[in-house]
Amino acid sequence: MWEVIKSVLAAFFGVQKERQRQHDFQHGKPGAFIAVGIVMAAVLVMLVAAVAIMAAR
Amino acid sequence: MRKTLAWIMGAGSFLGLASSTLANGWNMPAGVTDVSREIYSLHMTIFWICVVIGIVVFGVMFYSLFRYRRSRGAKSANFHENTSVEVVWTAVPLLILVGMALPATATLKRMYDASEADLDVMVTGQQWRWHYEYLGENVSFTSSLSTPRSQINGEEEKGENYLLDVDQPLVLPVGRKVRFLMTSDDVIHSWWVPDLAVKQDSIPGFVNENWVRIEEPGIYRGQCAELCGKDHAFMPVVVRALEGDEFDSWLAERRKEAEAEASGVDREWSMDELMERGEQVYGAICATCHQPDGSGAEPTFPALAGNEALLNDRDRHIDVVLNGVSGTPMAAFRSNLNPVELAAVITYERNAWGNESGDVVQPSEIQALLEQ
Amino acid sequence: MASNLPPKPTLEHSTTTSGGLAHEHHERPRGMLRWLLTTNHKEIGTLYLIFSLTMFFIGGIFALVVRAELFQPGLQLVQPEFFNQMTTMHGLIMVFGAVMPAFVGLANWMVPLQVGAPDMALPRLNNFSFWLLPVAFTLLLSTLLMPGGGPNFGWTFYAPLSTTYAPPSTTFFILSLHMAGISSILGAINIIATILNLRAPGMRLMDMPLFVWTWLITAFLLIAVMPILAGVITMMLMDINFGTSFFNAAGGGDPVLFQHLFWFFGHPEVYIMILPAFGIVSAIIPTFARKPLFGYASMVYATASIAILSFLVWAHHMFVVGLPLVAELFFMFTTMLIAVPTGVKVFNWIATLFQGSITFETAMLFALAFVVLFSIGGFSGLMLAIAPADFQYHDTYFVVAHFHYVLVPGAIFAIMAGVYYWLPKWTGHYPDERLGRWHFWMSVIGVNLTFFPMHFSGLAGMPRRIPDYALQFADFNMVSSVGALMFGVSQLLFVWGVIKCVRGGEKAPAKAWEGAEDLEWSVPSPAPLHTFDTPPDFKPVTH
Ligand code: HEM
Ligand SMILES: [Cu+2]
Fold first, then answer.
1. Which of A9, B246, B322, C65 is the most exposed place for a label (fewest CB within 10 A)?
2. Residue A52 and residue C329: Cβ atoms within 8 Å?
3. What residues have CB less than 8 Å from C20, skipping those under 6 apart?
4. What's the pLDDT at C5?
């Protein structure tokens, strides 16, 4: 699971080692990546919103 | 390639030269308020950041284009990945942006703090002029373009403040915090004066806030910034900033005039008086749509000259001017014009351009209707 | 640079691996009917491209009317009513009629060829999506002749200017936009179905060329946001014709709601117009640098990030409508974030050039100009993202400069680069390089003359969408108008070059460019009507 999160984080940041990517694409389950990706997108939105709310105070 | 470089440098120095000779009017004005200067410095900071990034990035690019030309015998390498480089060039822009976000956030918070104002001014956008009301002072007026049509149409030389002049500027005090309450009677407009760094949409059904504390007396010019129909280009904003005591006496003067006008409601007006006053009001308010000669612009703006339906129904005419026609551009003028102006303009419309109804509408009659 | 182009690959060292069997399955209609009824992806692609070029010229003529009026202060040629119709129609036609259909046309031609598919997955639907467009735009153009004139409220058609205060023809405008929207959605479904189902055996998603990738993501964006556009114009329709008050404050409606809905569609829309361009440039630069694309995976990831973020930034178009402070901050932060993956793309292209073996064919020239000039648009985007500063920039010519830099030398240069790049595949002939270079240099100079001064006039205080302006803006406007004329005229060279290339020219082999790798270069040039009837043998190149 941590592996998947790490890879999704790397994708959000936009940089990943080719070897790791090959590994993910050979062994990972796409469903897991998609699910984690959606959750992380939601987390990102909440994070930015939280920063905005704090900054506005 | 070398030729191209020479060209680019030539063009660069030309631009530099041109910008120094034409110095003014190429950049955002720093303006005359604290906020406007903060915005200006944000603008210049982000601009220079972009310039530096641009020089580095395009520098590498043009170096590569020059150095690795096939015609110079370049053989291509085969790398296509480098994680650390990629991490750096993602992280560095991210950090720069965080650095930019901090001061921007601080400025934004100041701009949003409209509390503790010394004076409230209601700004109402109307197709195609601005209405100003000094809240609690019983002073209000409409401000519209004063550049003559003949200048716009090129029949006369264009004046110095072409398109940036109005009949009555908004007068504001220097050194006091003025809060604007912005709204609109019809479509969305946007009240903008670059030197004050105030740009705020005026939206029907909403009241937006903004504020300004002007530091130097002077005349500041701007324009409507949001497309609002045909005469969007012709509704400038002019602000005249006066020292505090000058402003106070100006305001007192205007208050007295308003009181005098209010007392005019009770007396009987003659046809000639009403026609004269009505022509003024018509020219400032109604003529943009219904045309100076009352011919209108079908199908959107009906003609008033020779409009039988209107001439035969005096009550409807009064109703339309007071309450507007919903679903059309015809606005309700009951709160924008005073009873004298309303009576005068209706009388004028019923008797000008060959309309010979002979009707006189008295201010007192309008006053009675408004009070219903 | 002119004389230094490399020798073209010779005809013999390019045997075709597969496909190219031009056998006819059945009797085909001829003449007009052939084009009306065609279900062939190449023919439909051609139709899209011709349609787009036509719209490009019509929209261009409207722009020249605008620029002619703005050549000098004062009203000379047109009245404000007509001027507003010209700006509005120019924007609508260019966005929905020129740029979007051009990308769909390129997708029609190239996606099946690049994934090794015999055709699009849904050929009849394909025909229908195309033919909706000429109907929609004929209708849209005809509104100019209706009483009260055509749309005059800007391509963003903010209510209530576009509802209560709109000309009677607005209902037709809504209908035509509905049709264009349906066409886009159907086209997007078709592209997704093709990419996901018809790839050559052995081609995994991460083996796909970037043009295919960017189009896959674009297609999802289209399906996500076109219904929102449809919704918002339907609400307008109801306000205008059925007495509702969605956007009418007098009836309790909310004009700001319109803007939220519009930009929730509109911001992804601007990325719809640029992502496929990224794909094209990512094909061309490696080809002429003779070096694999740097950071293929990051390119895919950056495209996906941009797509996701593009749903979170819409209100940066609304910084001055009076949003609450928290909202301003949120949208400022997300907008700054989206600039990062955009920057990463530029860095990747430049790293691809680094240590390559570079030649400057016309396609490459346009792709390189894209990188530079698109970045300039990105820089002004970054400036606009600073919310407090946007209070000064908003609704001025500075914004006009920004989006024209990303759309003209951005999207449109990429489209032209793509055309020069793939013309040998389409026609079997190389485009005339000399003509191409003339077209390129005239366009680059014209574009910069037109749009660079707009930064200055905007900063100096000139609002957008005005038919007449104060005297201090006169010089900038005069330069812009001259540049616009030059840019417009030089597009005739483009048409000439394309026609010339269709009719003849130096013969191109299957692999027309030495450094080109993707599957389309394995079928003969010109590509026969039917390709990849049997799936090709795909060997992944290491990206
Ligand atoms: C670095 C990335 C970008 C950033 C940060 C950015 C930011 C912005 C901002 C803040 C505005 C609103 C300005 C205003 O109205 O005051 C804007 C307007 C616009 N942008 Fe961008 N932008 C970026 C890239 C793009 C791209 C790639 C495109 C399309 C290809 C694009 C097309 C537009 C358009 C069409 C408008 C104006 C729409 C209108 O009001 O008519 N931008 N951009
Ligand atoms: Cu946007």
1. A9
2. yes
3. C523, C524, C527, C528, C531
4. 61
